[in-house]
Specification:
Helices cover about 55% and strands about 10% of the residues. With about 290 residues, the chain is α+β, with helices and mostly antiparallel strands. The chain has two domains: about 10-120, no CATH class; about 140-285, no CATH class. A four-stranded antiparallel β-sheet has the order 3-4-6-5. Strands 1-2 form a two-stranded antiparallel ribbon. The longest helix has 27 residues, at about 230-255.
Length: about 290
């Protein structure tokens, strides 16, 4: 699954270069117009890139480019033409610029950082912590969020090993776990929080919502292993049981505390660390 730029744009000298990690191809993709702007000093990088493609159409500069949704300077998201490291190096060769060689070295460094993260996941965790901290999340929330990533990864690896197809089948099983846990599918949960389609739901969950999401996914993993679930149908039943386990625990906690776990709040306008704990505001009328 590809996510819209999960990292802040990275810097080359004074220029911001947007990038996105694509899990399907297992590589970074860079916004071509950003690189063109950095190397050409053109006042209209989009036109410069268009002229490059037209001028060198016989070598098909954009043949290996792909489009991803990226946020522009005006705050809106657009389908943006991107190239991976190999494709970007080919494009750089067609830009007469003294900055070309330093940029190649910079590009290699960026790619090397990803290799480091694969070899040492702790580096990826450290960078994620720094990113969330900069966005205003509390240390407690960050720990829960990163733990949820690990539990999700363990679940999807289990699905892969048990013959579940990535994509729609993963989405259906995830929806079933969420339905059992919260009484809502992820899309309905996003609607409750008035999130946009591009927003990552888990980045807007409260600490409690993250914990019960983890419980549902962890329970599903354990049930699938215990029953040796194979294929989509059997894993759907495991997901149903895993969600039910988490849902029962949620309802028991809510009955004991009198406070709902589900929250309609998001962190679009106000950082998580500045908000009250779930259940201490107007969300108390939620019941699922």
């Amino acid at each position: 699954m590809t996510q819209e730029t999960g990292l802040q744009p990275i810097k080359f000298e004074q220029f911001s270069i947007r990038r996105i990690w694509d899990e399907e191809t297992d590589r970074w993709w860079f916004a071509v117009v950003d690189v063109v702007g950095a190397l050409s000093d053109s006042k209209s990088p989009s036109k410069y890139w268009f002229d490059m493609k037209r001028r060198e159409s016989e070598i098909e500069l954009s043949a290996n480019c792909r489009k991803f949704r990226m946020k522009a300077a005006n705050g809106r998201s657009y389908q943006t033409e991107c190239a991976d490291t190999e494709g970007m190096l080919r494009i750089i060769q067609s830009i007469p610029s003294p900055k070309a060689e330093p940029f190649k070295q910079w590009l290699a460094k960026v790619g090397y950082e990803r290799i480091q993260e694969i070899d040492n996941p702790e580096l990826a965790a450290q960078r994620a912590k720094a990113l969330y901290k900069a966005k205003g999340y509390s240390d407690e929330w960050i720990e829960a969020r990163l733990r949820s990533v690990d539990i999700r990864k363990e679940l999807t690896e289990e699905w892969q090993n048990r013959g579940v197809q990535a994509g729609k089948e993963y989405a259906f099983l995830t929806a079933e776990i969420s339905r059992g846990t919260f009484g809502l599918t992820p899309s309905e949960h996003k609607e409750l929080k008035t999130l946009r389609k591009k927003d990552n739901l888990r980045d807007h969950m409260s600490n409690a919502e993250l914990v019960f999401t983890m419980l549902g996914e962890l329970s599903t993993t354990e049930v699938a292993r215990h029953e040796d679930a194979q294929g989509y149908d059997e894993n759907f039943q495991a997901a149903k049981k895993g969600g039910r386990i988490a849902g029962n625990a949620r309802r028991e906690l809510e009955a004991e505390t009198g406070k709902p776990v589900l929250s309609s709040r998001n962190y679009l306008d106000h950082p998580e660390s500045e908000q009250l704990p779930a259940g201490d505001d107007a969300d108390e009328d939620l019941a699922f």
